[in-house]
Amino acid sequence: MDQTKLEQVTGILAESRKELAQRIIGQDAMINGLLMSLIAGGHALLEGVPGLAKTLAVKSLAELTGLSFKRIQFTPDLLPADVTGTLIWDQKSLSFSVRRGPLFANLILADEINRAPAKVQSALLEAMEEKQVTIGEESLPLPDPFFVLATQNPIEHEGTYPLPEAELDRFLLKLVVPYPSREEEQEIVRLSHRNSGVSETSQKLKPLLGKNALARIREAADEVRLDDALVNYIVALVSASRPQERSKRGSRDDFYRYLSFGASPRASIALHRCSRIQALFSGRDYVIPEDIKAVAPAVLRHRLVLSYEAEADNVDADALINRMLALVPLP
User: Fold this and answer.
1) What is the rounded CA–CA span in Å between residue 189 and residue 180?
2) pLDDT of amino acid 201
3) Helix axes 289-300, 228-239, angle to 10 degrees
């Protein structure tokens, strides 16, 4: 990749962050994760307590791209047809016609996705993987590009339904949204006071990441160099998450008792794709091991199935990922 193209792409990304910073204070990891999902063409799951600007961040990203946007509020009484659409009887033509649901948009915000039962969540499986929806006997393609950005609240359990592993694996990244620092929260309060009485939509963001700009950034990401030794490192890291590797690594790797199932090759593909974009974020046209380590938690944390022993010992996926990063030798 020539230097001019690299500077142009990194300039667009810097301007995009600057635009989002007008509404989102702090939360750099969430913003980078959303941009990474957008560039990689994958879906993202945002997990955090209420009030951390998850929904605002997704709506702002949609405005930044200029793509069509739909928000679906997931509730326990939602039906699959409310998401995908359904067949309706046309009395004039004496035939059924398709009424498309809100899923037919470029960017979908699935708000509080874990509040809907499994039959509604499963309505997203075909859409997220195949980029199409089957209604009746007809398979309808979804708009291109198509992204699902879902949010979930980790502290409420009554009236919620855990996402099945098959659906979790279809998310490219799982982003954990933390509380802001004290300084960031002070700035949030000041910004809220300055904007009191001013609607969100009156402060439009520049559509810097339209289809043409997005295509240019994706082309640049594809040109980022990734050495074969780093591909081997990615595969070794993902393989280390699988319990059957225990016999190969010896008794000192006791974290395997906390794992029931590890990540699939889909995780290796995601690490390969996201590490290139991480290098681009850093203004480089080549990947280094630190890029892979930086994206590993977001790529892997939702793909590990933990054992009951992990829950009993209060061990989470991030702790296991850090252990794997420490054990797998760098190239």
Assistant:
1) 12
2) 47
3) 30
DSSP-based helix, strand, coil % in the chain, nearest 5: 50, 15, 35
pLDDT tens digits, one per residue of 310-322: 888 889 999 999 9
- State which fold the 3-192+210-219 domain adopts: Rossmann fold (3.40.50)
CA angle (156 as vertex; 150, 160 as ends), nearest 5: 65
Instruction: Give the CATH superfamily of 224-327.
Output: Magnesium chelatase subunit I, C-Terminal domain (1.10.8.80)
Residues of the chain with CATH 1.10.8.80: 224-327
pTM beyond 0.70, yes or no: yes
Residue 226 falls in which region: left (phi positive, over 0), alpha (psi -120 to 50) or beta: beta
Q: How far apart are CA 323 and CA 325, in angstroms?
A: 5
CA separation for the pair 46, 43 (Å, rounded): 10
